[in-house]
Write a structure and sequence with these properties.
Blueprint (H helix, E strand, L loop, with lengths): L9 H4 L3 H4 L12 H21 L3 H8 L10 H8 L5 E5 L5 H9 L2 E5 L16 H11 L3 H14 L6 H18 L5 H15 L7 H14 L2 E3 L4 E3 L2 H4 L4 H4 L6 E4 L17 E5 L2 H12 L3 H4 L1 H11 L3 E5 L3 E13 L2 E15 L2 E2 L13 E3 L15 H6 L7 E5 L4 E12 L5 E13 L2 E4 L6 E4 L4 E6 L25 H18 L7 H11 L5 H12 L3 H17 L4 H11 L6
Parallel strand pairs: 1-2, 3-6, 5-6
Antiparallel strand pairs: 3-4, 7-8, 7-17, 8-9, 9-10, 9-11, 12-13, 13-14, 14-15, 14-16
Helix pairs in contact: 4-7, 6-8, 8-14, 9-10, 18-19, 18-20, 20-21, 20-22
Pfam families: Biopterin_H
Organism: Olleya marilimosa
InterPro entries: ArAA_hydroxylase (IPR001273), ArAA_hydroxylase_sf (IPR036951), Aro-AA_hydroxylase_C_sf (IPR036329), Aromatic-AA_hydroxylase_C (IPR019774)
Length: 586
Amino acid sequence: MAFKNIESNPILDRLPKHLRQFIKPQDYEDYSAIDQAVWRYAMRKNVDYLSQVAHSTYLEGLQQTGISVDAIPNMYGMNRILKAIGWAAVAVDGFIPPNAFMEFQAYNVLVIASDIRQLEHIEYTPAPDIIHEGAGHAPIIANPEYAEYLRRFGEIGCKAISSAKDYELYEAVRHLSIIKEAPNTPQDQIDLAEKAVEDLQNNMGEPSEMALIRNLHWWTVEYGLIGTIDNPKIYGAGLLSSIGESAWCMTDKVKKLPYTIDSTFQNFDITKPQPQLYVTPDFAHLSLVLEEFANTMALRTGGPSAIKKLIQSEALGTIELSTGLQISGVFTNMIEHNSKVSYIQTTGKTALANRDKELVGHSTLEHPDGFGSPIGKLKGINLAIEDMSPRDLRAYDIYEGETVTLEFEGGIIVKGEIITGTRNLQGKIILISFKNCTVTHNNTVLFQPEWGQYDMAVGKEVLSGYSGTADLHSFDLITHTISSTTIHEEKSPEKLELIALYKQVRDYREGTNFTISRTKVLEQLINRFPMDWLLPVELFELAKKGNENELCNTILDHLETIKQNRPEVGHLIDDGIKIASQEIVV
């Protein structure tokens, strides 16, 4: 396997096909000199500030993950270096579905949105970009305890059951992030998209497992603080990559709370700075809270609530019975009796499995229109079918060639001729097949002989329910269609001219062309692009290093003019001047 523009490694080679559909080439050559300058400014400012307030892993992690201050990271280099700590990275187009995002984490793969924010959004963007992913997420995984938390979060999170509204919200947030980062989007379109997200967030109904675990992800992986309430350090990627919010979050204007399971129910607004943040005492505590939440999930609780969540999701899900039999499909109905599941029904393609491996003869080809089965014990018989010995089964006529009537405690009656039974490795019977079979509940017919062979699941209870399929090969999962893609700027002749000036300065700084006259570049900039602030800051840095006082003063005068005309970038200019003379190398 080979991913274009990505050097593969054993971790990427393990990725299943349905995750590979989200991967796109990085196309490193597409980054302009302005993009590189945006990265460099954000990283220099981040490293300067975060060296004081970030978790100690941050600076070490930048080195360990192959991320430099001076250039946007190349996936080739990152994957070579990440391999040493057991991780890999792939490029994607913006937001991908939450289950897929978390499943990548479960495979120790960082998902990196490879586009970079515009200069106008240098402090913060709601769209995932390479500053957020590369400079935010990557460094902290150098900490082994945190890396294991991230992997485990992915493993559990990708099993979380979503609601139909979750999918709507995902699409709305993705759309907002794309148009907000796109150049020249009319403000009324942004306002409409923000209102759509807000309306959905305010009308989600009962939060799904995915909604709740996304809250945990937000308050830890994205916006987490670590240490004490009085002296916290930053480790969340959203804070590490936002040169605005990383400073804001350290003020008293942001409330600091101890990180507990209660944060599961604290929603967030992706379009605004966070009014409160949670502080974990250490990385190990994150895993304790995660396990506490996982104990509330259908994955571990099973029972009627698991089936209800799957029905509400209207999406592919799996249940596992006490025998180990796994049923994967879209669940549409359940009959309950005495607070227990007595019958389950899927609609459409369904597959049966054991230990995440599809049972031979029980693929979606054999069950194209759904699957229904009683669950539980037989009426008046204390011994469950799964616990019966061969002698017990014979005594109750559950035997090849026998015509039987099986009445379950939940009122389901199965009547037909037994063809055969399927057992698991432990010898437990997990499936019984009938011909000429009728299944009824009160006066409702659930299965009739004309429909063909009836396969009855064996299990006294539902132990688990989760999103997705048991066997990844049972369903065609290569079906993701992206409703909208990142909008890339059509570069005008003027923009190309500005990029060329940035490129000259970059070439000079990197030593690839010392013939460039920086004075001439400054003159052209003042003449053609008088309100551009970042390139003059870069020119000031070079003049400062060369002790060219006259050029420094000329640049400072020009920057003062920009500040008067564009007060909103004044603090960015001041910060750039402040760190211009500092040696920042990672």
